[in-house]
Every structure is written in structure tokens, then in C-alpha cells.
User: Fold this.
Amino acid sequence: MKKSIIFFVLATVATVCFAYAQTVVTTGTTKTITLPPEKVDLKPGQGMDKAATYCVICHSAEYITMQPKGTKAQWTGSVNKMIKVYGAPISEDDAKVIAGYLAANYGTGQ
Amino acid sequence: MAAGMATVAAAVGGVPSTLLGEERRLAKFPEKTDLIRLTSRPPQLETPLHYFKELITPNEAVFVRWHISNIPTSVDLNQWRLKVKGNTERELNLSLDDLKKFEKVTYTAVMQCSGNGRRYFEPRVFGGQWGNGAMANCTWGGVRLKDILNKAGIKPGSVDVSFDALDGPPLPSVPDFVKSLPIDKAIEEDIIVAYEMNGTPPPMLNGFPARLIVPGWYATYWVKSLTEINVLTKPFEGFFMKTAYRIPDTPCGCVPPGTAPKSTIPINRMTARSLIIEPAKGASIKVNQPAEIKGIAFSGGYSIKEVIVSTDSGKTWREAKLGRDLGRYSWIQFSYPWRPAKPGKYTLMAKATNSIGESQPFEGLWNPSGYLWNMVQKNEVAVR
Assistant:
């Protein structure tokens, strides 16, 4: 009984490893790739939960973390662009919280 | 189970390597070697500069840039079709085999992201923070767009041709990535729908099974995983033409740093540029030993006529030797034999000029979106 559980666990781990290694599979006329999982590592701070919820609906968090330090006005502009241009479903209040979070954690301090 | 998967993936996938002090880490994506990961979803991956020591960039090292997050990850060639429609005599639904029945055209061309070099803008601008690695020199094989359009039969009154692909928006409110070319541009001889990249099908992340190639123009027009060509009787007004990917309507495509342009036009032909690859920035070189300066140069569809090199911060210049010429759309390698006689800090510079006199500025030309970067680069090296 115990042995079979260990075997099952090992088999599962092996399958997962194999599946991950096989990032490109061609079956008949179909080619399929498996993308690596994304990492979300926003700085902790007031409003992070809202940024982590809304911003990553459409893109990974690196779209924030790779940017140069922005002013409050730049980050507010960025959040507004996401709402007005791309239709991000963010309320006015949440938009302020997110812009504040971004300016405080990824900002120039201005 | 999901957590186990993530741990395995973390152990195998992301190789942490801080390259410039900011968020620039290497990552392995399908059919790709370790590239600098700017973003994961949609993927934006940059090529480390050492790959540019080669005349042709291998497929696995070519940069990746998608705009909206529902990118194709699975393609069945039995299902995939390239549809040609709109203001044409007939509608076409071409399979990959159908495409291969047209006359095949092959040439080498630089593919470069509009925002290549954006991280060097001062003042800095938001957007993909590319260094110089959002470019590649590949040999493309495919069919002339003109031949496809002529088979469909372009009707009078055609103005623009738009190009749509397998990628799609994550929310209905997000604009789809669709690009267009004016009809006169679309029927130019050298624009092709490529099904080969360096002799093999393009990797999924570079536009499998076929993509548009607009040689000489920035890669924003090189629509990947193409599915639809639409001939239009009115100017195309999609977001990625009318609002995004626009440059100031000035001769330099630039405005005073930090200011807004009065009017803009869609980005188009690439500016002339060069890049020293060896010795790299910060390299340490032995005094009185040969240290060849090597790099690449290209422009938007005009042959590079001359590359000059300076080893003294631009005080004096010498002509570099140009390598094998693969045509006006390819980059050309340059080399200059250098043997530093004294220890110290040296600033190496290179400046390219093309056949119509286009060259590179010594100060960065600025525009709000961070496009057209081609400033003469400075590689500071130490001679010991």
C-alpha cells in the first residue's frame, strides 16, 4: 500500500517534469507549445492587492516592474490609459488606489 | 499539483541573472534559447548582444514581441488558412501548401522592433524597456504579397490593405492587433508572406506558420501568424495604426525631449544604425595586443556605404572594413583592427552611413513613444 503511494507520487512528479520539458509537441498536423508559468512579484504595499488583481487580467506584472521610475502623473496616466483605451474594468476609486500604489512603489517620488 | 508544477517550472525555467540592475532576467521559452525576459504575458524576450557576432541570427535566439495576451500556442495546419478578402475580384482561402505553390522568394533582412533601444531614451519613456537586442538578421523565404493580391484581383478604388493574425485580445474591449499598409506599398516587389525563417518554419513565438515581411520597415508591420489580408476602399483606422506606433511628423521623427508632437504619422522605414558588438561595453583589453573592433550596421532598405570607427571618444575617425554584402535589407558586419598602445580608459564609437546619406546622430533623438533609436553608441573599455 505504502509502496504504491510512493510509486504514484514518483510517477506524478516524473510526468510533470516530462510534460514541462516537452514545451513543443507536434501531433499529426498540429504543433503546440507550452509557455512557462509567469511570476508575479509586485512590491508589498498599500494597494498591491488591487494592482495584482486588476493589472494582471491582461498582462503579467513585469509590465509594471520593467518600467523606469514614473511620476505620480505618469502612473495615473498609465492607469487611465488601461481603462480608457483598453477597457480595463477598474472603478474610479480603485484606479486611484492602483495609481497611488504604483507611484509609491515604482515612482520617482514626485 | 499546481503548486508542484510551479516549483518544478521555477527550478527548470527562469535562470536568474541580473544583467543591468533592473528587471532583466534570462528565461527559456519554447523553441527559444535563454533570452532576456522583459515580460511573460504576452511574451517580450530580448536577444543577448553576443548573438550579433554572427551574420545570421539563429531562430532560437531571435527576439519575441507580442502585443495582446491571447497568443497562438497551437496551430493545426489542416485548419490554418490565409484568407484574402475585401475589395478583390475573388476571395481566397490559402492553405500552407497553397502558399508554397506560388513562386518562392528568398532574401536576408533585418527585423527590428520599433522600440529597440527605448531604455536609452532620456528622459526615460514608458513602454517595453528594450536594450539593443530587439533585432535580428534572418533569411526569409516565402511568397510575394503582390502575387497573392494579384491572384485575388485588386479592384479599383483600393486604398489600404490590413493584416490580421491568430492572436486575440484578452477582453473584448482591448483592440485587436491589426496593421495596415497603403496599397502602393503593399504591392511592392519585396514584401512577402514568409513561411521560412532561416530555412525552417518560423518558431511559434516568431509567427508560425507564416508571417508578413516588410523589409526596411520596422517589425510592427511584420504581422506574425497571419490569417487575414483585407483590401480596403477606405483608410484603415485600427488602434495600432491610428493611435499607436506613431512618430512625430517632423524630418527627424523627433521633438525636443519631454515635449508632445503637433502631429504624428505611422512609423515606417528604419533609421540607419550601427552597433559595436566586440569589445563589449566594460570589456578589459590587454595593452599592445590586437583587439579587433567588430559590429553590425544596417538601415531602412539602403545599403550601408561606410562605417567609421573612433577609439578616442570621437576625436579622430577611421574607416572600418565591411564584410560580406547580403543585400540592402541585411545588416553588414564591420571590423577595424585596433592595437591600443597605452593603458587607460577608451571610448569606442561607430557611425554608419547608407547610400542615400542617412547616418546616425551623436545625441539621442527623442520622441514620446521611444521609437527610431539610432544614436552613435559609446562602448567604454579598459586597456590594461
The mean pLDDT of chain B is 94. Residues 2-12 of chain B form the longest helix (11 residues). The longest strand of chain B covers residues 344-354.
